[in-house]
Design goal:
Shape: globular
Number of strands: 7
Strand content: 25-35%
Structural class: alpha/beta
Strand order of the largest sheet: 3-2-1-4-5-7-6
CATH architecture: 3-Layer(aba) Sandwich
Distance between the termini: 25 Å
Number of domains: 1
Order of helices and strands: EHEHEEHEHEE
């Protein structure tokens, strides 16, 4: 997927390192979500102090629960560094699998809850990096389209 047409979402963004590293690529938008208010504050401070080149200017760091987070519209690259257990992971995956009007790449570092992704028929394993896995859920060609505000 072309970064220019994709939003990268770092789930469990912590201090914001992955967000800042990803911002050197021309993503349409980058969103870091983190449930800890203290870590969100540190990530925002790190973003403000960052002096490197940024190819993406639309960077958001938000406090959110991944199990109920509403992902941005459009194609997504979702990055996870094994941030939580299956009780949070399963509802998040369900939401990502439900909207088949977009492509979703899932980059899963240290995939402890891999079985949850493997059980989701929308995701196809496309690469095993040794330290992590990359899955892709492609949009359905005949997915319902919104017409004048209706599904």
């Amino acid at each position: 997927m072309a970064p220019e047409r994709s939003t990268l979402v770092d789930v469990g963004a912590g201090l914001g390192r992955v967000v800042l590293h990803a911002a050197r690529r021309p993503y349409r938008q980058i969103v870091g979500i983190e449930i800890s208010p203290a870590l969100v504050a540190v990530a925002k401070d790190n973003r403000a102090a960052y002096r490197g080149e940024l190819a993406c200017r639309d960077i958001r760091l938000v406090r959110a629960d991944a199990s109920t987070f509403t992902f941005p519209r459009g194609d997504l690259v979702v990055y996870l560094y094994n941030p939580f257990g299956e009780e949070v992971f399963a509802p998040m995956l369900e939401q990502l699998c439900a909207d088949r009007r977009r492509d979703v790449a899932l980059v899963y570092h240290t995939p402890v809850a891999r079985a949850a992704v493997d059980a989701c028929p929308a995701f196809e394993l496309i690469s095993d990096l040794g330290f992590g896995l990359v899955y892709l859920a492609r949009r359905e060609l005949h997915a319902p389209r919104r017409i004048l505000g209706r599904a």
